Structures are given as C-alpha cells and as structure tokens.
C-alpha cells in the first residue's frame, strides 16, 4: 500500500503529526509512506527516514508553495511555474492508495488533490469540521473524498492520529494504551553527540523561549527575570533566543537585567534541536521550539498564557510539565516549583 501524508507546516504542526507515521507502521509495516511538507521543514522528517534498521518515512516530498509565492511577487513567473511543475511531478511519482491531509487548509488540500491520479483507486481523507482554536478552511473539504468528523476539542496530536486511523478504517488510538511516538531514541543520542552550535557546555544552560508570534501568548518579562535569576543562582546559564528584531530587543532587555544570562546569535531550527537536546532544561511559551523539546521527551516546562493547554500540552512524558491555560498564566512560584522538580 502507498500512503501519502500531507502536513505542510509549521514547526509545531509538523512535530505533532509525527506519531501518525508510527501508527501506519503498526498497521501496515510494509507500506510505502511518503510525506509532503514545505521545503523549510524537510529536516524535521529526516530522522524518521527509512533505513535498514528502521522503517519510517520512505519518501519526503518537498512542497514549494512558499518559495513559488515569493518568486511570483518578485516577478520571477517562469521560475515559479517550473518549481510548481517539478513539485507536481514528485507528488504524482507514485500511485497513492490513500492520501491523508491533516491540516484542514485549502493549500494543503490542494496538494493532496494534485497528488491524486485515480478517481477510482485513490482516496483522499481530511478533517471534516472546525476544531476549537485551530485554523480551518471549510472549502478544503471539496478536495476530499471523505471528510473525517472529530470532536470540537481535541489535542493536536490526537486529532491527527484520529484522522489517520479513520482513513485506514481502524479504531482511534487511545493515548493511554498507545501513547504517541515521535522520534526514535537514536536521534536524541545523535543530537547529544553533535558539536554544540553556540559553543555551550552540555547541561550547563537552560533554553528560555520567550518569543511568540502572538504577543498575547508572551509571559510577563518580570516573571522571566525572576526565573532566570534563580537559574543563575543554581549555576546555570539562562539563554534567551530571538528570531527577529523585535524579539531581539526583548531578549536584550531580559539579559540586561540578569547578570549571567546569555543573548545568543540567531540560529536555525535544525540547530535548535541540538541546543534543546544538550540543555539541562527548556522553558518556553506555547511555540514550536518549546514543543520540539517536548516531543524529544526532554525536561521541558511549557507555559500557556493565552492559549488552551489541552490543545498542545505534552501529556506523553513525565519530563514535560505544562503550566497555565487560556488567560490564566502561571505564577512565578508555580514555574519555580516545576524547575526545582525537573532539576532534582
């Protein structure tokens, strides 16, 4: 059986979709599994590529929608068209028996539709309804052969696994009986052996991901300062990453108030994997980089300030502590207690 997964972006969404690969392998160990993903997130899937020792993802198909859009805006029409044609050819390189689209957006549903070669022997499955606090475009259903209805409130991981299970005519997996799997343990071992991209000494620093695309999800700066000061008192270096000019200003402000804190240079998502793997602890708001640490089952404190905890909390590991909730930010004391628990 040939199965194509379509989850294009972004960081957290791709990470939370990883368990469906393991679910497919449990039911169809010899299936050919491919995944269509935006070019910028291909590296997230590399650790799950099939090897003689591991059957995971057999094929990763880079999707060029973002790059083609930029080329069109810059007047490079021929380049955009050539990239789109190449992508379409890759999407149709095999006859897919099942195509599973778990994003619920028109662009991802379009990619699923482009990959379909037969109206008779290929079925496209996708999410059939809006879920709370998740992006969803009802028009995407027009590209599906079957729309899967899911509960209005459902964790992002559980939602993807439910859609996949229904696509394969299987029962929805129980998070208690069959908890989600993300990366193989060998990947974490590999990350810990790599040269630290910022020259940090392993286990001597804490990643503090304060930045978020939506300012309402940010934690109070005074609270970050209090936590960072405690970390320094424990002989650890708080690291305050940033991704753009505005975030860098906040990082600079935080570091200026905490002697011993670190303002790192910009780094890539791929480098972030090594950084969280070698950190003593990761503390962060509801953002993809924090979730990266959580899916690696590393000591992680996820802070929910203005987003629902039930939607993305790391429930699969005792190493992950989830604090706060929608419009109920955690207190400094709650975070300090969690830090002490994970450092013990």
From TrEMBL:
NCBIfam families in alphabetical order: heptsyl_trn_I (TIGR02193)
Family: Belongs to the glycosyltransferase 9 family.
Main location: membrane
Cross-referenced PANTHER family: LIPOPOLYSACCHARIDE HEPTOSYLTRANSFERASE 1 (PTHR30160:SF19), TETRAACYLDISACCHARIDE 4'-KINASE-RELATED (PTHR30160)
Protein name: Lipopolysaccharide heptosyltransferase 1
Protein's UniProt keywords contain Acyltransferase: no
GO biological process, one term: lipopolysaccharide core region biosynthetic process
Group of enzyme by EC: transferase
Organism for this UniProt entry: Polynucleobacter kasalickyi
Subcellular location: Cell inner membrane
């Amino acid at each position: 059986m040939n199965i194509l997964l379509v989850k294009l972006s972004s960081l957290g969404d791709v990470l939370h979709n990883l368990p469906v690969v393991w679910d497919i392998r449990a039911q169809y160990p010899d299936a050919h599994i491919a995944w269509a993903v935006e070019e910028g997130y291909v590296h997230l899937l590399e650790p799950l590529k099939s090897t003689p020792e591991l059957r995971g993802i057999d094929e990763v198909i880079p999707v060029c929608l973002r790059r083609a859009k930029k080329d069109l805006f810059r007047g490079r029409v021929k380049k955009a068209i050539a990239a789109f044609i190449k992508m379409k050819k890759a999407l149709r390189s095999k006859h897919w028996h099942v195509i599973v689209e778990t994003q619920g957006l028109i662009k991802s549903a379009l990619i699923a539709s482009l990959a379909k070669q037969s109206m008779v022997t290929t079925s496209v499955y996708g999410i059939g309804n809006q879920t709370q606090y998740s992006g969803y475009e009802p028009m995407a259903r027009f590209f599906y052969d079957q729309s899967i209805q899911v509960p209005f409130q459902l964790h992002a991981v559980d939602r993807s696994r439910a859609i996949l299970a229904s696509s394969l005519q299987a029962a929805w997996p129980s998070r208690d009986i069959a908890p989600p799997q993300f990366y193989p343990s060998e990947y974490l071992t590999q990350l810990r052996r790599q040269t630290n991209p910022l020259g940090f000494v392993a286990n001597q620093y804490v990643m503090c991901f304060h930045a978020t695309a939506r300012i309402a999800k940010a934690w109070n700066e005074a609270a970050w300062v209090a936590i960072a000061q405690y970390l320094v008192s424990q002989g650890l270096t708080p690291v305050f990453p940033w991704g753009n000019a505005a975030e860098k200003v906040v990082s600079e402000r935080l570091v200026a108030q905490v002697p011993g804190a670190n303002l790192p240079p910009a780094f890539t998502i791929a480098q972030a994997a090594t950084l969280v793997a070698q950190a003593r602890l990761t503390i962060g708001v509801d953002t993809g980089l924090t979730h990266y640490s959580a899916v690696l089952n590393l000591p992680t404190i996820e802070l929910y300030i203005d987003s629902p905890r039930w939607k993305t909390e790391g429930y699969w590991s005792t190493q992950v502590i989830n604090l706060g909730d929608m419009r109920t930010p955690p207190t400094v004391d709650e975070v300090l207690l969690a830090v002490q628990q994970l450092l013990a």
